[in-house]
Amino acid sequence: MPPAGARPRRAARTAALLALVLLLTGGTATGCGGRATTHHKPGTGHEQATGSVGTLLDAQDPTGHRLREVPAEGAPQVQLAARPDSEDGWNLQLTVKNFRFTPDSTGGAALPGAGHAHLELDGRKLARVYGPWFHLPAAQVPEGAHTLTVRLYADDHTAWAVTGKAIEGTLQLTAAAPGQSGGHSHTPPPLTPVPTPVPSEAQADRAVTLTVRDGKVTPAPGRTELRRGERVALHVTSDRADTLHVHGYDKELALPAGQEATLVLTADRTGLFEVETHGSHLVLTQLLVR
To answer: Which in 22, 26, 257, 276 has the greatest CB count within 10 A?
Structure first.
């Protein structure tokens, strides 16, 4: 039988250990809850609803994303303008205020005044936009009058909002038939897809050929290694109309259904960059530039 004085000491040690375990457990439960992450998830399309910026509302925008309301003073703002491109379609300019584009942290927690944009044509989503300029091919705009909408989103895909309304900019755009004059007092480019010229070997150091069919990428997504300064030609054929996007370089390419499209890119910055599709949210390849 242990001495009488040993029992209180043993009970004290047990209580101290129990308190330490509870302290560590509580720290684990609360330590990560509000911490923002900038981990990028290629092709993330679902709403994360993370971060403590603003007030997360039950209301949703027209595409089903929850609204993240912030005070009107200092809130993000966006305006949309379009200029006919001399070769094809329109060059869209997003003029933003109190907002910065953060393509490298898409899929992470909501950060103040940061994120990306969605571009819609008559309420139908065309693409995500990760910078102030976006080329809209004529093939994606049927003949007639249309409404273009650009809406700002946080990195977690919640829509920035003020007084219960999503922050967005709109523009009326008229696409004319070939040979006719149309919107913005300019002659619009033809509405038929313009074939993308295939670069010669002298124009590209590497060539990558990819096919998207029934939601699968062939060959299976892998890494394409490049030296800085090399030029790579991405030849992509998709069985459905889509848009290709090269993260980090903010390069976009329209993918007409059933036709090969080619994007030639100069790898002038080092790092690992995903190449994905907007519509089907597929990672096609990763560019590893050393």
So the answer is: 276
Residue 227 has pLDDT above 50, yes or no: yes
The structure tokens listed for 287 are 């560019």
Distance between CA atoms of residues 240 and 202, nearest Å: 30
Sheet holding 90-97, edge to edge: 77-84, 90-97, 133-136
User: pLDDT tens digit string along 76-121?
Assistant: 999 999 988 888 888 999 999 999 999 888 888 899 999 999 999 9
Instruction: Kindly state the tokens that stand for 246.
Output: 């090269």
Q: Residue for token digits 């030849």?
A: 235
